[in-house]
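job 3f2a | input accepted
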Amino acid sequence: MTEQQRIHPVVVNVEAPAAPTVPLVPPGSAKSEKGSPIPPLIQSTPPKKRNSCCCKCICWAITLIVPLLIILGATVGSLYLVFRPKPPKYSIDSLRISDLRLNFDMTLHAKFDVKIRANNPNKKIGTYYEEGGRLSVWYTKSRLCEGSLPNFYQGHHNITKLDVGLTGQTDSGSGSTLMSALQEQKQTGQIPLDLKVDAPVAIKLGKLKMRKVRISGECNLVVDSLSANNIISIKASNCKFRLKL
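job 3f2a | predicted structure (245 res):
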């Protein structure tokens, strides 16, 4: 009887992974001393430079402005050397009260005559006093009267005297209080009054008439009396004026 062939079962490991056919590390990759591959370095591209348009604009602006400032400074300096400008001077020559009375409706009526001296010390600069100038007289914070300044041209190195008439009337009911305060102040022989000026003017440099500006100022006076139809003595006077562009 022939010997029967024996069949031996073969155990196959199904879960074992198949051998890789493609290398895990791409060719050309570096390896460490132990043989393990080193991941390739990723080169980052440098960021693009920002547009320098803003810097160029600033440079162009500076290039244009600086020469203009130099030219303007040279022009102003030349004008100053040629004309030698000096500020005008103003003073109050006299103050006279034509009328100061308390009405039946308790309003205070006042009428003043003021003589002003305007001095232009410049030899090559004239002044146009335009229409719209105002002069007013105040006691503390109450306006007693006001009037218009004349419009005229004041030439070089000239002194002009102005005679300005002022009239006014306070609000109803406040005249009695104001008159009482003035009478009490009159007994001391020192009555403070403020003269305020606001006038539009135009400066003339040689033959060139400049644009209109304003002269604003105030004269702080101390007078001895408020008697009507009498020339009042001015004991103290302090005037300050400035140009308003």
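job 3f2a | The two ends are 140 Å apart (CA to CA).
job 3f2a | closed
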